[in-house]
Amino acid sequence: MAEKKNLLTDKGLKKLEDELQELRVVKRKEVAQKIKEAREQGDLSENAEYDAAKDEQKEIEARIEELESILKNVEIVYTDEVDNEKVNVGCAVTVKRVESGKIEKFKIVGSTEADFLNNKISNESPIGSALMGSKTGDIVDVEAPNGSFQIEIVDISLDDE
C-alpha cells in the first residue's frame, strides 16, 4: 500500500523546512551544550538539569524525525497555480451557515497544516471535504460529528493569509 501523500501549500512547506533547519542547526547545539554543562556538575543520578536536557533532546529528535517523515512524502500545492473558480487546497473560502446566517472564512490546507484556531481547515475535515470542488453560490451539506448542517459558499479567493 502506498503511503499517503502529505498535502502542503508552498508556504506550509517553507514553514516546515525552516522549523527543521532551526531544530537541526540551532536547537541541537543548544541542548548539547546544556547536557555538557549538566555533566560537568558531577553526579548525574540526581541532576535535574541533566534529566531535563535529555528530555528536551528526545523531544527535538522526535520532532526532527516527524518533520523528515512529512517532508519525505510531500505533495506541494502551489497557491499561485490554484484555480479559484472552485474550492481547492490553497483557497480561502468565505461561507455562510444557511440556518444561522453566520459568516466564516477558512483557508483550505492539507491535514499537516490544519490549525482550526487560525481558521486553517484540512481538506479532509468534514467542512473541508464537503467544500472541495464546489463553486461560489453552491450550498453544500456538511456531515459533522455533532450533526449535519448546510453552508453556502459566498466567496473563493487565493488569500495570502
**Whole-number average pLDDT?**
89
* Structure summary, number of beta strands: 7
Oligomer: single chain
Beta-strand fraction estimate: 25-35%
C-alpha-based Rg, rounded: 21 Å
Spans where pLDDT lies below 50 across 5 or more residues: none
What portion of residues is helical? 25-40%
- Within the largest sheet, what's the order of strands? 5-4-3-7-6
The biggest sheet, with number of strands, parallel, antiparallel or mixed sense and barrel status, is: 5 strands, mixed
Q: Provide the succession of SSEs.
A: EHHEEEEHEE
Please tally the helical runs, counting DSSP H or I stretches of 4 or more residues. Answer: 3
Q: Label the structural class.
A: alpha/beta
Distance between the termini: 35 Å
Q: Could you explain how this protein is built, in words?
A:
With 161 residues, this protein is an alpha/beta fold. Helix content is 38%, strand content 25%. The protein is built from three helices and seven strands. The strands form two sheets. The protein has a five-stranded mixed sheet with strand order 5-4-3-7-6. A two-stranded parallel ribbon has the order 1-2. β3 and β4 (103-109) form a beta hairpin. α1 (10-39) packs antiparallel against α2. It is elongated and about 70 Å long. It starts with 5 loop residues before the first strand and ends with a strand.
